[in-house]
Amino acid sequence: MRHKRNPRRYAAGFSRRFLEAIGAQAAGVGAIAVFAPDMLKDQWLLIVVAVVVAAAWAVFKQRQVSPSQWYAQGNFTIRLVVGDLFQQDASAMVGMTTTFDTDPTIIDAGSVQGSFLRTVYASSHTRLDQELAESLATVRPVSTIVKAGKGHAYPLGTAAILKGRGAIRYYCLAYTEMDEHNRAQGSIRGIVHSLDKLWDAVDIHSNGAAICVPLLGQGQSRVPELTAEAAVRLMAFSFFLRCRRKRVSSELRIVIHPNEINKIDQIEFQAFLRSLATA
Predict the structure, then answer these.
(1) Maximum distance among all Cα pairs of the chain, rounded to whole angstroms
(2) What is the full DSSP assignment across 185-219?
(3) Residue 177 CB: number of other CB atoms within 10 A?
(4) Is 105 exposed, middle or buried (0-12, 13-18, 19+ CB in 10 A)?
(5) SS3 for 174?
(6) Is 268 in a helix, a strand, or coil?
(7) What is the pTM (predicted TM-score) of this model?
(8) I want to staple 160 with a disulfide (CB 3.0 to 4.6 A). Which of 34, 172, 174, 222 is the partner?
(9) 228 and 218 in contact (C-beta within 8 Å)?
(10) CA nearest 188: which of 124, 231, 126?
(11) Which long-range contacts does 223-228 make (Cβ < 8 Å, 24+ apart)?
(12) Backbone angles phi, psi at 251, to 5 degrees
C-alpha cells in the first residue's frame, strides 16, 4: 500500500542520514589511512561502494514505520497503528452523535459506528439501544429534535460507557450533533471539548489501560476543515496535555483503517510526537 509522504521532509531526512553514513565510513577510512596510507591510493571503487552503501542506509532509515513515542514525564505512550479498531484487544472510543442514533437506516454501515454495531453487537441495534439507555439513565437530555429516529439530544461530549469482553470498555462519545434531517455536523471546538470529556471517562473507568481511538472528524462527521493529518495531531496533543497534568491511561492508540492510512504521513507524525517529548 502506498503511504503519504512529505517530499521536503523525506528529502531532508534522506540527506541527513546519507551524510551521516558517509561521515561514519570516512572516519573508518581515515583510521586505516593512518596505518596504511598506500592501501587506499587510487581505490575509486571504494568511493562508489561507500556512496551506494550510504544511499541504501538512508533509504532503509527513511522507511515507513508505525509512529510511536514514549513520554517520560507521565510515563505514557502514543502510538499510531493500522488495523481494525475492534481487533485491538483493548478498550475503544466509538464516535456517535448527541442523539445516540443507532438505526442502520440512519447510521452509515461503513462508519466506525456501523462496524461497531456489526462486530460487537452482531447487528442488533435493539440490544445496543438498550445498553446505551442504561448507561445514559442518569444524564438529562438538553433538547429535543423532531426527526426520524431518536429525538432526545444529550450534551456534546457525553460518553456512554458500555461493557465489553473482560476489562474492555467501549466509550460511545457524542462529538457531533444531528439536525432534523439526520445529518451529523461537528466542529473542531466540539471535538476538543469532547476529547476532554473522553479523558475524564477513561480516567474513571480504564484503570490505566490502553485506549484506542479511530480517526475523528472524517466522513459523515462533516468537519471539513479537519484533515486526517490535523485530526491525528489534535487527538495526540489533547491526550498529551491531559497526561502531562495527570495520566489517565498508559497508552493512546490511534487506530487507522487500512483504506485511510494513505492520508497520513507517518514520518511527519513521528516527528510531531518526538517534538512533544522535548516540549
Answers:
(1) 90
(2) E--HHHHHHHHHHHHHHHHHHSTB--EEE---S-G
(3) 20
(4) exposed
(5) strand
(6) helix
(7) 0.80
(8) 172
(9) yes
(10) 231
(11) 223/176, 223/186, 223/187, 223/188, 223/191, 225/188, 226/188, 226/191, 227/263, 228/260, 228/263, 228/264
(12) -155, 135
Closest CA relative to residue 58, chosen from 23, 8, 14: 14
Checking if the pLDDT of 186 tops 90, the result is yes
Q: Show the cell assigned to 95.
A: 464516535
Q: Between the CA of residue 273 and those of 8, 113, 146, 255, what are the distances in Å?
A: 18, 28, 44, 16
Q: How far apart are CA 156 and CA 191, in angstroms?
A: 9
* Interatomic CA distance for residues 204 and 220, integer angstroms: 29
196-222 tens-digit pLDDT: 999 999 999 999 999 999 999 887 766
Residue 167 has φ and ψ, to the nearest 5°, of -90, 0
Reported as a single tens digit per residue, the pLDDT across 101-137 is 999 999 999 999 999 999 999 999 999 999 999 999 9
Q: Which residues of 201-220 are buried (b: 16+ CB within 10 A; e: fewer)?
A: bbbebbeeebbbbbbbbbeb
Q: H or E element: which one contains 37?
A: none
How far is 213 from 233, CA to CA, in rounded Å? 13
- Give me the residue label for grid cell 473522553: 198
**Grid coordinates standing for 5?**
509522504
Can you spell out the DSSP letters for 237-264?
A: HHHHHHHHHS--BSEEEEEE-TTTGGGS
Q: Residue 1: what pLDDT?
A: 43
Alpha carbons 182 and 107: distance in angstroms, whole number: 9
CA-CA distance, 250 to 182, in Å (whole number)? 37
pLDDT > 90: what percent of the chain?
71
